[in-house]
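Step 1: inspect the first sequence and its tokens.
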Amino acid sequence: AATGLDRSSLMVAGNRARQAQAQGGRVNANALALNDRGRVEASSVTLAGNNASNVRSQGREATVAGMAWGKGIGQANANAVQVLGQLRAASIQLAGNLAANVRADEGLASANSFVQGDGTAEAMQLSLAGNSASGAQARDGRVALTNSVQVDGGLQGSSVQLASNQGGSDAGGARDASANSLRVRQGARVRGTQVTLAANKGTARQGTVNSADISGSLQGSSITILGNQGQADSGGVVNSVVGRGGFSASQVTVLGNQGTATGGSANSVRNDGSIATASITILGNQASVQGGGRVNTLDNTGALRRTQVLIAGNTGSAQGGGTVN
């Protein structure tokens, strides 16, 4: 679709796709891609009960779904939604989908996931629940998403829920693999938005698992990481919140999670900007880290002002150095 959805309803349900491959460009299986900055306004999109396996893009193209993401990019989408323009008062639901062996040799591999382009999402209700995926892979440091949300344009007055998903991602040795996670790209703001990641199970190599990675600013929002189980290898992050643009007037809660990591972070909050008028709670978590890292910890390199911090009832261990509780 090139123009988008306006006061409409779209459902993709109960479909099965096998051996979907593209030798040049991108491939979509049980997926929706709104091209050319397509918009979604006052509409609902549902992907439910779909099954996709062996989905692979091997080619190269200068654009992805109508927008240039860089040269030499080919994308593989399985049970996924991609919107490159504005979202307003939209409802997006991905539920009970299965994906296996989703691979992109030259670009983004997306399994049971949602990707937003440059346009801001306002008053959006987004839910990923009960999805399962295995073998999502991207080569040469490209992005691999499994049961995850990637936002390039920002969130305002929205709700994002990821619950009871299972899966793993591999970005070929880079830190762009995400499983059951929210990724907000640099410069994108999150304002007045509620984010909940609950009861997910996942693994990732050098990436994020059951976590929120906010490269832009977090303002007047809440993030809850609750009852998840995960493993992150080679410097990854599990059951955690990572910020790089500052938190203000926001609540971050990491509660009742279990995780392991190698040289990374587990059940922690890590921020490179300032934290002001905020509440940080890390409570009742269990984790272990090998090769140095952070366990059940708040690690803030910027200023901390008018903020309440509670770290209590956690159990953790770090081998090879690190910070615990």
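Step 2: inspect the second sequence and its tokens, then contrast the two.
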Amino acid sequence: INLYYQIEVIESQYGLDNQQRSGTLTRVNDNYFTSNDSANTTFLVYPDSFIIVRDEVDGQQLFIAGTPERQEPYPVELIAGDYLGVMTACAAQPVDNKCSDGYFHTYYHIRIKTDETLLMCPLSLENSSLETCLQEDPWFSRPIVWKDQGGGIIRLTYDSSLDQDNPLGFEFDTPIDIGSMMLGVDETGEHTLIIDSIGAPEIDITPGMVAGGRLIDLANVDFPNELFSFYQNGYRFEISLANDDTYVGTTQIPGSRDIQVTGKLLRNTPLPGLITFSVDTMDGAPVDQSLHRNGVGILMPRSGFMAIAPSNADFLTPSDEPQLLLGGKR
């Protein structure tokens, strides 16, 4: 089945505004498509749920995550609640449209409130929930205002006039634009969430992306048996998940051979709502766990939407290139 696609960059923090791409797609498997016009363009399409696109424009990699366009406003009562997200972002403000100082990956607890504000705070083993995080670091207690712009886009701003505690003394005459948020609303309540941070130097926010989903207890849920995903750098990762949460997988590296991996999925690890893909062997050889960083992130039971990043013990992982993995059920 061939599908036609068109991509237009409406807003970019990397100098790619107004770039357009189009072409046709060929289906590789149920949800995975490749472009007939560009070897570097791949799609994961999950109708009525989410879409993930990896593309390349003028030598710059694009990693696009989105949710379906909406004709109606988001139902506030339905989307309100707690979410977990995996963030990949520039380690510092971009220079010449590039993250010259590299990237970092971390994990956020996000609470969308019915008063059209939200809170988000980075997690750690010591600060395992939004409440403990806010107690530890008042910086993140500043409320972010969300406003439904229509079409499935929610605009996020920081308004210092609403920050009653104002722990850091920020005062601005006008709200500070932070970025946008999209949600894939699921009738079962298993919503997916994408936040595009455009960067706000005034309050030390750098450009990046958060991909996540509703915070749920993973102890007894059923996950899809076949998962397919790819990293920002083009690597692909396919796994078959058994009922005992062990898995067999293949890491497909562009321009190189495939690597066979085995391991185990650990639920609610290292924190409630998160999963860890531990790697036991690579090409049949045991993995030295003291040298290896396991993948940690979120995995939604119904859709299989997954957002994974390599994690250090302190949950803040620096890297020279973005290493976020996104995918879903095969």
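Step 3: confirm your contrast with the notes below.
The two ends are 17 Å apart (CA to CA). The longest helix spans residues 130-136.
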